[in-house]
Specification:
The chain is an alpha/beta fold and 423 residues long. It has twelve helices and 21 strands.
Length: 423
């Protein structure tokens, strides 16, 4: 069980920092996401420290978890933001992040999104195709702007990770092939309204080794070499986290050390998401029913693939911890209520005897949990709670049924339906 100083048992009760998780569940119900502010800060500080010798600027990847409270917490530590849509830019601006500190990436930015980014004055635009570059050049000319651009290189390397989250191989939709980047750089005069001052290489998420990143960085440097004003290198995110005890992944320090000999004289940028928030968060659920069938113990809980889709989408294994420490007796299939066979949160969780009302924490769920949550089956998305030492607060309330109706029936009176907990 990957527990740590912020998610730990105290007197047999699972706590987030100094708050027993039962207290949160009693007050706001389940399912609920809970995040440790201390752990988020510690993870960010660790990355900043690891890459400090490289003078790197860290831009938190909002797609991992874009709760306003988390954005504000990280911005206060000096992090910039990595956005992949105008919606994320808007959210970061709303959280008080300076536009200059935002980098904007994405393989399919719409003209409206690019215009929005230009008008907001975002710091960097990571361009992913020649056509996008020309469009951006036109939009910039119309606005009298001259944005800084990093070309996203597709270096043709296969990252060691799940195929859904590898991005740097030749068959991927991401980035621009080496020969095309070289051609664009050779004719920079063709797009006079953009300043191409950087290259970007994000080769995947949950990276299993540093080698491919190093290869990609070296490839980018070779391309940039003839152009002395092109000395910013954004190496993306992808720093892995341990989902299981005994998971062996290179720590951020290993990436920094491997890259350091090559990056003197370069402005370095990072876009970590998962490594900052994943192990700071958990999804708290309650057991609804236990049944034995087909030779398995099924533990049906009130959380599902609509709150946490990673097990269904990537066969991800999130460890599950009971709120009350007890010896594990038997394997269980932990399943949610959604009408999909894929709605299994864990296929083989070693858990104690459980009955209705018992609570479980699905761990390492702070990244790509709430940000990928849906309303499938008309389920309301859960609240999010941020723990600060011994206190905690709701940083996003639970949705209501009326929240779900309002876009179709704008007159739906807010709060007219009963909260789910009263049903
Ligand atoms: N930069 C770019 C250009 C990216 O595409 C990503 C992630 C990141 C940074 C942040 O990567 P991280 O540090 O979080 O690994 N939903 C999947 C992960 C998708 C990652 C997409 N891009 C999951 O749940 O595993």
């Amino acid at each position: 069980m990957p527990l740590h100083e912020s998610i730990h048992y105290r007197d047999g009760t699972l706590c987030c920092d100094d708050v027993p998780l039962d207290a949160i569940a009693d007050a706001v119900g389940t399912p609920v996401y809970v995040y440790s502010a201390a752990r988020i800060r510690a993870n960010a500080a660790r990355l900043q420290a690891a890459f400090a010798p490289l003078g790197a600027a860290v831009h938190y990847s909002l797609k991992a978890n874009a709760n306003l409270a988390i954005i504000r917490l990280l911005a206060a530590l000096g992090l910039g933001m990595d956005a992949v849509s105008a919606g994320e830019i808007h959210r970061a601006l709303r959280a008080g992040v300076a536009a200059e500190r935002i980098v904007f990436a994405g393989v399919g930015k719409t003209p409206a999104e690019l215009a929005y980014a230009l008008e907001a004055g975002v710091g960097w635009i990571n361009v992913e195709s020649q056509a996008e570059l020309h469009l951006l050049d036109r939009l910039a000319a119309q606005r009298g702007a001259r944005p800084r651009v990093a070309l996203r290189l597709n270096p043709g390397v296969s990252a060691r990770t799940h195929h859904h989250i590898a991005t740097g191989h030749a068959g991927a939709k991401f980035g621009i092939a080496t020969s095309t980047v070289a051609a664009i750089l050779a004719q920079r005069g063709a797009t006079p309204h953009v300043r191409i001052e950087g290259l970007h290489v994000h080769i995947g998420s949950q990276l299993g080794s540093v080698d491919e990143t190093l290869t990609a960085v070296r490839e980018a440097q070779t391309l940039a070499e003839p152009y002395p004003d092109l000395r910013t290198l954004n190496i993306g995110g992808g720093f892995p986290v341990a989902y299981q005890d005994g998971d062996e992944y290179p720590p951020p320090e290993a990436f920094a050390e491997a890259l350091r000999p090559y990056l003197a004289g370069w402005q370095v940028k990072l876009e970590p998401g998962r490594s900052i928030v994943a192990d700071a968060g958990l999804l708290l659920v309650s057991v609804l029913y236990v049944k034995h069938q087909g030779g398995s113990r099924f533990v049906i809980v009130d959380g599902s693939m609509t709150e946490l889709i990673r097990p269904a989408l990537y066969s991800a294994q999130h460890p599950i911890a009971p709120l009350r420490a007890a010896p594990a007796t038997e394997s269980a299939i932990v399943a949610g209520p959604v009408c999909e066979s894929a709605d299994i949160l864990h296929r083989d969780a070693m858990l104690p005897a459980l009955s209705a009302g018992d609570r479980l924490a699905i761990l390492v769920a702070g990244a790509y949990g709430m940000s990928m949550a849906s309303n499938y089956n008309q389920r309301v998305r859960p609240p999010e709670v941020l723990v600060e030492g011994a206190s905690w607060r709701v940083v996003r309330r639970r949705e209501t049924w009326d929240d779900l109706l309002r876009l179709e029936e704008p007159d739906t009176e807010r709060g007219a339906s009963r909260p789910v907990s009263d049903v």
